Amino acid sequence: MKKVALITGGSGQLGDDICHRLSDDGYLVILHYCSGRKRAEDIKKSILNKGGDCHLIECDFSKPELVQEMFTSISEKFKRIDVLVNNAGLDGGRFDVANTPLEVHQKVMAVNYFSAVECIRLATIIMRRNNMSGVIVNVSSQAAVYGGYQLSHYAASKAALVAYSIGAARDLMKDDIRLNNISPGVLENSDMSLERKTRILSEIPASRLVESTDVSNTISWLVSDQSKYISGITLPISGAR
């Protein structure tokens, strides 16, 4: 049976590339999505057309209690999880500090931290139950380092996940389960204004923004045996910014 990779937030820009790359690497891909059903179906169709194996699963991560139901369904149907990529994320929108509602912090933390941690916990149970090795990769953000302009709530949620992972990686390593974080910089996208892009590029020695393939290629390496001694790190994908 193929190894199984669960990618949360799989219907977004990053998720698309991650799902395709891990499918190319030979994994049976479980693509989690919340609201992007049409995009998820298109990604699944593309993977199937290339000879891969992709299954969709819907779950609203703003309600962490639903995560348990999602993993129960995965466990019953697939019996295993070899790779978990915590890619689902929510930035919550830009707010001045004095005008950031508590509800924004709560919603962002529910998706970016609490649900991600619950995914780690439940994936670990399945991996340990099957007495097999596994790999978990959290998609953090350079905002966790730099704070992000009017995105303190988002930065805090990503920083919390990184901090959690340090101790969690030590605990999991004894069961041959590796846990790492990647920390991408600003992703190339068509919605960014030229003014903002120019300003950000002036701070990046690599002279370009992060591309989705930069992220998916890094994840592919981290879940492979080529990095089997690496756990507990946060790897920047930042072009030396």
Would you write up a description of this structure?
The chain has 241 residues and is of the alpha/beta class. The chain has a single domain (4-237), classed as Rossmann fold. The chain contains eight helices and seven strands. The chain has helices at 13-24, 37-49, 65-78, 102-129, 143-146, 152-173, 194-201, 212-222, and strands spanning 4-7, 28-33, 53-58, 83-86, 134-139, 177-184, 234-237. Strands 3-2-1-4-5-6-7 form a seven-stranded parallel sheet, sandwiched between helices. Helix 1 runs parallel beside helix 2 (37-49), helix 1 (13-24) crosses helix 8 and helix 4 packs parallel to helix 6. The longest helix has 28 residues, at 102-129. It is globular and about 50 Å long. The model has no long low-confidence stretch (mean pLDDT 95).
Compact overview of the structure:
With 241 residues, the chain is an alpha/beta fold. It has helices at 13-24, 37-49, 65-78, 102-129, 143-146, 152-173, 194-201, 212-222, and strands at residues 4-7, 28-33, 53-58, 83-86, 134-139, 177-184, 234-237. It has eight helices and seven strands.
N-to-C SSE series? EHEHEHEHEHHEHHE
**Runs with pLDDT <50, length 5+?**
none
Shape: globular
Instruction: Tell me roughly what share of residues is in helical segments.
Output: 40-55%
- CATH class designation: Alpha Beta
Name the CATH architecture: 3-Layer(aba) Sandwich
Tell me the number of helical segments per DSSP (H or I, 4 or more residues long). 8
How many domains? 1
Mean pLDDT: 95
Radius of gyration: 17 Å
Strand order of the largest sheet: 3-2-1-4-5-6-7
Largest sheet: 7 strands, parallel
The CATH superfamily title: NAD(P)-binding Rossmann-like Domain
Structural class given helices, strands, pairing? alpha/beta
